[in-house]
Amino acid sequence: MTTRAGFVALIGEPNAGKSTLLNRMVGAKVSIVTHKVQTTRARIRGVAIEGESQIVFVDTPGLFQPRRRLDRAMVAAAWGGAADADVVVLLVEAHRGVTEGVERILEGLADIGQGRKVALAINKIDKVEAPVLLGLTEKLNAAYPFAETFMISAERGHGVDTLRHWLAGEVPEGPWLYPEDQIADLPMRMIAAEMTREKLTLRLHQELPYQLTVETENWEERKDGSCKIDQLIYVVRDGHKGIVLGKKGETIKSVSTAARHELEEFLGRKVHLFLQVKVRPGWLDEAERYAEMGLDFKDGNG
Protein backbone atom coordinates (compact mmCIF):
# COMPACT_ATOMS: atom_id res chain seq x y z
CA MET A 1 0.00 0.00 0.00
CA THR A 2 1.53 3.32 -1.07
CA THR A 3 1.32 6.16 1.42
CA ARG A 4 1.68 9.82 0.59
CA ALA A 5 2.47 12.88 2.69
CA GLY A 6 3.23 16.49 1.95
CA PHE A 7 2.71 20.15 2.71
CA VAL A 8 -0.07 22.25 1.19
CA ALA A 9 0.09 26.04 1.63
CA LEU A 10 -3.16 28.00 1.65
CA ILE A 11 -2.50 31.55 0.46
CA GLY A 12 -4.69 34.53 -0.34
CA GLU A 13 -5.74 37.97 0.79
CA PRO A 14 -6.77 38.58 4.40
CA ASN A 15 -10.25 37.18 5.11
CA ALA A 16 -10.32 35.05 1.94
CA GLY A 17 -11.40 32.07 4.08
CA LYS A 18 -8.07 30.27 4.55
CA SER A 19 -8.56 29.52 8.25
CA THR A 20 -12.15 28.39 7.71
CA LEU A 21 -11.00 26.05 4.93
CA LEU A 22 -8.17 24.68 7.07
CA ASN A 23 -10.51 23.95 9.97
CA ARG A 24 -13.00 22.22 7.66
CA MET A 25 -10.27 20.15 5.98
CA VAL A 26 -8.87 19.01 9.31
CA GLY A 27 -12.27 18.58 10.96
CA ALA A 28 -11.32 20.55 14.06
CA LYS A 29 -10.62 24.12 15.03
CA VAL A 30 -6.87 24.63 14.81
CA SER A 31 -6.78 28.10 13.28
CA ILE A 32 -8.18 31.33 14.61
CA VAL A 33 -11.28 32.40 12.65
CA THR A 34 -12.77 35.86 13.13
CA HIS A 35 -14.46 38.50 11.03
CA LYS A 36 -11.36 40.67 11.42
CA VAL A 37 -8.63 40.57 8.80
CA GLN A 38 -5.00 39.61 9.47
CA THR A 39 -5.84 37.43 12.47
CA THR A 40 -3.61 34.49 11.54
CA ARG A 41 -0.09 35.46 12.59
CA ALA A 42 1.84 32.21 12.67
CA ARG A 43 1.92 29.57 9.95
CA ILE A 44 -0.46 27.13 11.61
CA ARG A 45 -0.20 23.57 10.43
CA GLY A 46 -3.28 21.38 10.43
CA VAL A 47 -3.07 17.70 9.51
CA ALA A 48 -5.78 15.94 7.46
CA ILE A 49 -6.02 12.29 6.42
CA GLU A 50 -7.53 11.38 3.05
CA GLY A 51 -7.28 7.68 2.17
CA GLU A 52 -3.60 6.71 2.34
CA SER A 53 -2.48 10.35 2.17
CA GLN A 54 -1.56 12.70 4.97
CA ILE A 55 -1.99 16.34 3.99
CA VAL A 56 -0.24 18.91 6.17
CA PHE A 57 -1.92 22.26 5.65
CA VAL A 58 0.00 25.46 6.24
CA ASP A 59 -2.47 28.27 6.98
CA THR A 60 -0.43 31.36 6.19
CA PRO A 61 -1.18 34.93 7.25
CA GLY A 62 -3.12 36.86 4.61
CA LEU A 63 -1.02 38.59 1.96
CA PHE A 64 -1.44 42.36 2.06
CA GLN A 65 0.58 45.57 1.75
CA PRO A 66 2.65 45.60 4.97
CA ARG A 67 3.02 48.84 6.95
CA ARG A 68 4.48 47.84 10.32
CA ARG A 69 7.18 45.44 11.46
CA LEU A 70 4.59 42.84 12.51
CA ASP A 71 2.89 43.17 9.10
CA ARG A 72 6.18 42.60 7.27
CA ALA A 73 7.01 39.54 9.38
CA MET A 74 3.54 38.10 8.68
CA VAL A 75 3.84 38.60 4.91
CA ALA A 76 7.33 37.05 4.92
CA ALA A 77 5.91 34.05 6.83
CA ALA A 78 3.13 33.69 4.24
CA TRP A 79 5.50 33.62 1.27
CA GLY A 80 7.88 31.38 3.21
CA GLY A 81 5.04 28.90 3.81
CA ALA A 82 4.18 28.88 0.10
CA ALA A 83 7.81 28.48 -1.00
CA ASP A 84 8.30 25.48 1.33
CA ALA A 85 5.12 23.66 0.28
CA ASP A 86 4.67 20.78 -2.18
CA VAL A 87 1.36 22.21 -3.42
CA VAL A 88 -0.03 25.74 -3.15
CA VAL A 89 -3.74 26.63 -3.10
CA LEU A 90 -4.66 30.24 -3.86
CA LEU A 91 -8.00 31.26 -2.35
CA VAL A 92 -9.89 34.06 -4.07
CA GLU A 93 -13.24 35.40 -2.85
CA ALA A 94 -15.83 35.03 -5.62
CA HIS A 95 -17.62 38.29 -4.84
CA ARG A 96 -14.45 40.38 -4.63
CA GLY A 97 -12.86 39.07 -7.81
CA VAL A 98 -9.42 40.13 -9.03
CA THR A 99 -8.43 42.90 -6.63
CA GLU A 100 -5.07 44.70 -6.51
CA GLY A 101 -4.09 42.32 -3.74
CA VAL A 102 -4.87 39.26 -5.87
CA GLU A 103 -2.84 40.76 -8.73
CA ARG A 104 0.15 41.21 -6.37
CA ILE A 105 -0.18 37.58 -5.25
CA LEU A 106 -0.26 36.38 -8.87
CA GLU A 107 2.99 38.28 -9.48
CA GLY A 108 4.53 36.68 -6.38
CA LEU A 109 3.42 33.22 -7.54
CA ALA A 110 5.46 33.68 -10.70
CA ASP A 111 8.55 33.67 -8.44
CA ILE A 112 7.73 30.76 -6.12
CA GLY A 113 5.39 28.71 -8.32
CA GLN A 114 8.21 27.08 -10.31
CA GLY A 115 8.42 23.33 -9.77
CA ARG A 116 5.25 22.99 -7.69
CA LYS A 117 1.58 22.73 -8.52
CA VAL A 118 -0.61 25.69 -7.76
CA ALA A 119 -4.38 25.20 -7.60
CA LEU A 120 -7.02 27.91 -7.62
CA ALA A 121 -9.91 27.71 -5.15
CA ILE A 122 -12.66 30.26 -5.71
CA ASN A 123 -14.34 30.59 -2.33
CA LYS A 124 -17.76 31.90 -1.21
CA ILE A 125 -19.32 30.79 -4.51
CA ASP A 126 -22.81 31.13 -2.99
CA LYS A 127 -22.38 34.92 -3.09
CA VAL A 128 -22.36 35.30 -6.90
CA GLU A 129 -24.23 34.09 -9.98
CA ALA A 130 -22.82 31.39 -12.32
CA PRO A 131 -21.85 33.76 -15.21
CA VAL A 132 -19.75 35.86 -12.79
CA LEU A 133 -17.99 32.71 -11.56
CA LEU A 134 -17.24 31.63 -15.10
CA GLY A 135 -15.82 35.04 -16.03
CA LEU A 136 -13.64 35.13 -12.90
CA THR A 137 -12.34 31.60 -13.56
CA GLU A 138 -11.36 32.50 -17.12
CA LYS A 139 -9.66 35.75 -16.06
CA LEU A 140 -7.59 34.09 -13.32
CA ASN A 141 -6.57 31.12 -15.46
CA ALA A 142 -5.46 33.52 -18.21
CA ALA A 143 -3.27 35.32 -15.65
CA TYR A 144 -1.60 32.19 -14.22
CA PRO A 145 -1.29 28.52 -15.33
CA PHE A 146 -3.21 26.90 -12.45
CA ALA A 147 -3.05 23.09 -12.33
CA GLU A 148 -6.75 22.87 -11.33
CA THR A 149 -9.60 25.19 -10.43
CA PHE A 150 -12.07 24.40 -7.64
CA MET A 151 -15.36 26.11 -6.75
CA ILE A 152 -15.88 25.95 -3.01
CA SER A 153 -17.67 27.34 0.00
CA ALA A 154 -15.32 26.76 2.93
CA GLU A 155 -17.99 27.85 5.39
CA ARG A 156 -20.69 25.49 4.08
CA GLY A 157 -18.35 22.72 2.98
CA HIS A 158 -19.33 22.75 -0.72
CA GLY A 159 -16.54 21.42 -2.94
CA VAL A 160 -14.12 20.93 -0.03
CA ASP A 161 -14.08 17.11 -0.28
CA THR A 162 -13.26 17.30 -4.00
CA LEU A 163 -10.36 19.66 -3.29
CA ARG A 164 -9.04 17.47 -0.45
CA HIS A 165 -9.28 14.35 -2.64
CA TRP A 166 -7.28 16.06 -5.41
CA LEU A 167 -4.63 17.26 -2.95
CA ALA A 168 -4.31 13.72 -1.54
CA GLY A 169 -3.24 12.53 -4.97
CA GLU A 170 -0.80 15.40 -5.49
CA VAL A 171 1.34 15.20 -2.33
CA PRO A 172 4.53 13.13 -2.79
CA GLU A 173 4.76 9.41 -2.07
CA GLY A 174 6.38 8.69 1.28
CA PRO A 175 5.78 7.88 4.94
CA TRP A 176 3.40 9.98 7.01
CA LEU A 177 4.98 12.93 8.78
CA TYR A 178 2.85 12.95 11.93
CA PRO A 179 1.10 10.38 14.15
CA GLU A 180 -2.38 9.46 12.88
CA ASP A 181 -4.22 11.16 15.75
CA GLN A 182 -2.32 14.46 15.59
CA ILE A 183 -4.25 17.31 13.99
CA ALA A 184 -1.79 20.20 14.44
CA ASP A 185 1.93 20.64 14.94
CA LEU A 186 1.63 23.77 17.04
CA PRO A 187 2.40 23.29 20.74
CA MET A 188 -0.79 23.22 22.83
CA ARG A 189 0.48 26.32 24.68
CA MET A 190 0.33 28.29 21.42
CA ILE A 191 -3.06 26.88 20.38
CA ALA A 192 -4.43 27.87 23.80
CA ALA A 193 -3.02 31.40 23.41
CA GLU A 194 -4.56 31.65 19.92
CA MET A 195 -7.97 30.63 21.29
CA THR A 196 -7.87 33.39 23.90
CA ARG A 197 -6.66 35.92 21.31
CA GLU A 198 -9.58 34.98 19.07
CA LYS A 199 -12.05 35.70 21.87
CA LEU A 200 -10.38 39.07 22.51
CA THR A 201 -10.49 39.90 18.78
CA LEU A 202 -14.21 39.14 18.67
CA ARG A 203 -14.93 41.33 21.71
CA LEU A 204 -12.72 44.32 20.89
CA HIS A 205 -12.92 46.78 18.01
CA GLN A 206 -10.82 48.94 15.70
CA GLU A 207 -7.04 48.67 15.94
CA LEU A 208 -6.75 47.20 19.44
CA PRO A 209 -6.72 43.52 18.43
CA TYR A 210 -3.56 44.16 16.38
CA GLN A 211 -1.96 45.97 19.33
CA LEU A 212 -2.19 43.00 21.66
CA THR A 213 -0.80 39.51 21.89
CA VAL A 214 -1.43 36.53 24.18
CA GLU A 215 1.18 34.17 25.60
CA THR A 216 0.73 31.04 27.69
CA GLU A 217 3.06 31.63 30.61
CA ASN A 218 2.40 28.48 32.58
CA TRP A 219 0.71 25.10 31.98
CA GLU A 220 0.24 22.85 34.98
CA GLU A 221 -1.15 19.31 34.79
CA ARG A 222 -3.20 18.43 37.89
CA LYS A 223 -3.71 15.07 39.57
CA ASP A 224 -7.46 15.13 38.96
CA GLY A 225 -6.85 15.21 35.17
CA SER A 226 -7.58 18.92 34.78
CA CYS A 227 -5.01 21.55 33.86
CA LYS A 228 -4.28 25.07 35.07
CA ILE A 229 -3.29 27.57 32.37
CA ASP A 230 -1.88 31.03 33.10
CA GLN A 231 -1.84 33.47 30.21
CA LEU A 232 -0.50 36.99 29.77
CA ILE A 233 -2.19 39.52 27.50
CA TYR A 234 0.30 42.19 26.38
CA VAL A 235 -1.04 45.61 25.34
CA VAL A 236 0.91 48.71 24.32
CA ARG A 237 -0.67 51.34 26.61
CA ASP A 238 -2.60 51.81 29.85
CA GLY A 239 -5.79 52.86 28.06
CA HIS A 240 -5.80 49.52 26.22
CA LYS A 241 -5.51 47.66 29.50
CA GLY A 242 -8.71 49.32 30.70
CA ILE A 243 -10.51 48.35 27.48
CA VAL A 244 -9.39 44.70 27.76
CA LEU A 245 -10.46 44.53 31.42
CA GLY A 246 -13.78 46.30 30.76
CA LYS A 247 -16.16 47.86 33.28
CA LYS A 248 -15.76 46.03 36.61
CA GLY A 249 -13.68 43.43 34.76
CA GLU A 250 -16.66 42.26 32.67
CA THR A 251 -14.81 42.03 29.33
CA ILE A 252 -11.89 39.96 30.60
CA LYS A 253 -14.33 37.74 32.50
CA SER A 254 -16.43 36.98 29.44
CA VAL A 255 -13.28 36.42 27.30
CA SER A 256 -11.89 34.05 29.92
CA THR A 257 -15.15 32.08 30.14
CA ALA A 258 -15.46 31.75 26.34
CA ALA A 259 -11.81 30.73 25.93
CA ARG A 260 -12.05 28.23 28.81
CA HIS A 261 -15.16 26.56 27.33
CA GLU A 262 -13.48 26.20 23.94
CA LEU A 263 -10.29 24.82 25.50
CA GLU A 264 -12.27 22.29 27.53
CA GLU A 265 -14.07 21.14 24.39
CA PHE A 266 -10.79 20.93 22.45
CA LEU A 267 -8.88 19.08 25.20
CA GLY A 268 -11.81 17.01 26.47
CA ARG A 269 -11.17 17.87 30.12
CA LYS A 270 -11.59 20.55 32.77
CA VAL A 271 -9.48 23.69 32.39
CA HIS A 272 -8.69 26.38 34.97
CA LEU A 273 -7.78 29.48 32.95
CA PHE A 274 -6.25 32.61 34.51
CA LEU A 275 -5.70 35.75 32.43
CA GLN A 276 -3.54 38.73 33.34
CA VAL A 277 -3.16 41.97 31.36
CA LYS A 278 0.25 43.65 31.18
CA VAL A 279 1.26 46.93 29.57
CA ARG A 280 4.37 46.54 27.39
CA PRO A 281 4.69 49.62 25.16
CA GLY A 282 7.36 48.05 22.95
CA TRP A 283 6.13 44.48 22.51
CA LEU A 284 5.70 45.00 18.74
CA ASP A 285 9.49 45.48 18.54
CA GLU A 286 10.58 42.60 20.79
CA ALA A 287 12.14 39.55 19.14
CA GLU A 288 10.88 37.28 21.93
CA ARG A 289 7.23 38.14 21.22
CA TYR A 290 7.69 37.27 17.54
CA ALA A 291 9.27 33.93 18.44
CA GLU A 292 6.20 33.14 20.59
CA MET A 293 4.00 33.80 17.53
CA GLY A 294 6.13 31.57 15.32
CA LEU A 295 7.34 34.57 13.27
CA ASP A 296 10.87 35.66 12.39
CA PHE A 297 11.68 39.04 13.97
CA LYS A 298 14.29 39.75 11.25
CA ASP A 299 11.61 39.44 8.56
CA GLY A 300 10.00 42.57 10.01
CA ASN A 301 12.84 44.77 8.75
CA GLY A 302 11.56 46.62 5.75
TrEMBL record:
Record's keyword terms, sorted: Cell membrane, Cytoplasm, GTP-binding, Membrane, Nucleotide-binding, Ribosome biogenesis, RNA-binding, rRNA-binding
Region (G3): 59-62
PROSITE patterns, A to Z: G_ERA (PS51713), KH_TYPE_2 (PS50823)
Region of interest: G5: 152-154
Region annotation (G1) ranges: 12-19
BP GO terms, sorted: ribosomal small subunit assembly
Gene Ontology CC: cytosol; plasma membrane
Domain Era-type G: 4-173
Keyword Nucleotide-binding: yes
Keyword DNA-binding: no
Region (G4) residue spans: 123-126
Record CDD domains: Era, KH-II_Era
InterPro entries named in the record: G_ERA_dom, GTP-bd, GTPase_Era-like, KH_dom-like_a/b, KH_dom_type_2, KH_sf_prok-type, P-loop_NTPase, Small_GTP-bd
UniProt cross-references to Pfam families, sorted A to Z: KH_2 (PF07650), MMR_HSR1 (PF01926)
GO MF annotations in UniProt: GTP binding; GTPase activity; ribosomal small subunit binding; small ribosomal subunit rRNA binding
Family: Belongs to the TRAFAC class TrmE-Era-EngA-EngB-Septin-like GTPase superfamily. Era GTPase family.
Subunit structure: Monomer.
Protein name: GTPase Era
UniProt source species: Sulfitobacter aestuariivivens
Gene: era
